[in-house]
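Section handout 9: paired folding examples.
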Amino acid sequence: MSIMIDFIDETKELSEQELNTIEKLLFFAAEKEKVEANSELSVTFVTNDRIQEINREYREKDKPTDVISFAMEELGEGEIPLTGVDLPRVLGDVIISLAKAREQADDYGHSFIRELGFLAVHGFLHLLGYDHENEEEEKIMFSRQKDLLDEFGLQR
């Protein structure tokens, strides 16, 4: 039993093979991170315009970015955690700009699928509580990303 991933390709640009690779990568990462079976997340692939709207609305940054994560387990102000309820763990949403992924793959000199995998794992780790607000957190998160991608077989 693995995690449940809802993929939404708003751009209709990804091939079935690319989606399957990202799905296998996230299953692999979830297993390595010991995420509970049946945990849920969504991964949405969007245009630069769409991610810019989301970035502006939720992060007050009026520019396109590569990936944005919305962790469901972070409690908002005034929210209380549900306890004693046997519901699947809902990790949250990862939103990836395909145009940014293509641009960055070119900039870094690696494949589009490697960049897409990097962004998916990056967003996924954010949902699990990893962050890069300071140098120490960044070292831990980026090292974990690289290890997962290398072990899966998506090296640079």
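Moving on to protein 2 of 2.
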Amino acid sequence: MQTDPPLTPADELVGGEPPRPQRPQPRRASARFMLSHPLHILSLGFGSGLSPVAPGTVGTLFAWASFVAFSRYLTVIEWGVLICAGFVGGIAICGFTARKLGIDDPSPVVWDEIVAFWLVLLIVTPATLTGQVWAFLVFRFFDMVKPPPISYFDRRLKGGFGIMFDDLVAAFFTLLVIALWRMSV
């Protein structure tokens, strides 16, 4: 049995060019993928990001439901700590899942929407159900349409920080619209 000799650097050149590094093929987020690591469970919003239709909207609805459920048990200070920790931790969590999926800002990663909408709800509370619906609609508008400067940050900032930051800016603009509306009434 004859074996080929080991490749030398000259053998690796094709047409005089060094070989191009292969970028891994993007993976599809699935329940199996989500359950393969605890950080995926968080970044995929406990499965809400696996929705085949509008995962960001479903993730925001999850944020709303969890805010209502946990508000009975958490003080404003505790919510603030949770949101800050969720943002800082979300940078690593979302970046990790995005790298594993092979996509810069995968739509199934909804932890960014969850933390940002928690912030919106914390600041507008107490709000009527109608007020919460309007906060939801305005936040989804800014998150989906990404008007300037949100689109600027979305294009320029990469990795986990970029994933988290553009939703934080969307939350800021949502709160600005709500504040302007409240001042005009």
